[in-house]
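Working notes for the structural subgroup meeting. M.R. asked for a predicted model of this chain before we commit to crystallization trials. I am recording the input and output together here so anyone reviewing the notebook later can reproduce the run.

Input as submitted:
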Amino acid sequence: MLEYAAQLFDPAAMAIVLGGSIAAAILRSTRRDLERALASVVPLVRAAPDRDADAAEQSVRQIERLVELKGIACADRIKSGDPFILKAAARLADAPSIEAFGEWAVEEIEQRRVRHEAVLAVWRSAADAAPSMGMIGTVLGLIGMFMAMDDPARIGPAMALAMLTTLYGLCLGTILFGTIAARLERLSVAERAWQSGALGRLEAVVRGQPMAEVWLRKCRRPAQ
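Returned structure, recorded in token form:
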């Protein structure tokens, strides 16, 4: 089995398909998008939206208690391991009004959606290009076969190139790049869902404050 699998690997065929797919993704994307696409490999493996949502729920409750006891300007004193919650808490404490915080929340989620879509576009570009690069390799292999009709020893390698590039194109496009894009899309939707929920909770906390329209600038001490 291992010997047969080894026979299915051809460096030239892999270079055509993998190299061509990566080149297509690079040409279709910006440098920043490519950097983010490479960085997305880490959350691809480690991301746990349910765990993050539970942690955000606990952090929001802490912020609620802080706001109730000390005032809105103390919201940024929250201790959390989530950068998004810390950023939201800082915005909540420094925002000049409820409306300003609400506008920031909408803009923040939209910016995250745009960034996520840009990353997905990189992986989708590679997934779309892989089968096409496989077909290009197949055509090259067929050309090699026709050019070697007078030399039977050269027909086999050319046919192998034609078949393997098709195989690689399908596998890389569907199993690798396509799967990565699909998983990142699901993670993006799940992440933005709990982040939107957390921001909505924070905005509701602010609106529930009796002096929210004045927007406290200094932390109050808890009532004795």
